[in-house]
Amino acid sequence: MMSQAMTRTYFASLNVMLKIWKKVLIPYGLILDRTERLVQEVMKEMRDHHIAILCVLQGGYKFFADYLYYIKLVNRNSDQSIPLTVDFIRMKSYCNDQSTGDIKVIGEYDFSTLTGKNVLIIEEIINTGKTIQTLLSLVKQHNPKQVKVASLLLKRTLQSMGYRPDFVGFEIPD
Questions:
Q1: Where do the Phosphoribosyltransferase domain residues begin and end (predicted)?
Q2: Which of 96, 104, 128, 169 fits as disulfide partner to 152, beta carbons 3.0 to 4.6 Å?
Q3: Structural domains of the chain sorted by starting position, each given as residue range(s) with its CATH number in brackets
């Protein structure tokens, strides 16, 4: 039989967990399933090409890690392995959770390394589309063979510039 202290602790923990669960929009297992399907879509479209993958930091790193895991599975389980190069870029358009409208690349990035390559940009969430459109214009100035964007989340917002990535995991409300 449970003691009175254990019962209070148990129910206090349960209440905390219920509050957390109400905030979860998309369960992690569903995110992993959709990530795997996104990889299959991208690989179907870009399978015959060396792919230069560019991860937009900071938010995109977890999605990117899961994405790479599934690419490795596809490469391991297929007849033909797809050569990849991986790079990271950090963009800043927010200050204290508010968009500044001024989008910058943090640090130095040599976009000329993407010349003539098939580029896949991985982004965690696209809010208005301003940041990704800025990045796309910077990448396209260096004449890649093709550029595709995969985003885990696409936010439906009135501030949207109408940009839609090539591959989307989930559309979410504002």
A1: 31-173
A2: 169
A3: 26-173 (3.40.50.2020)
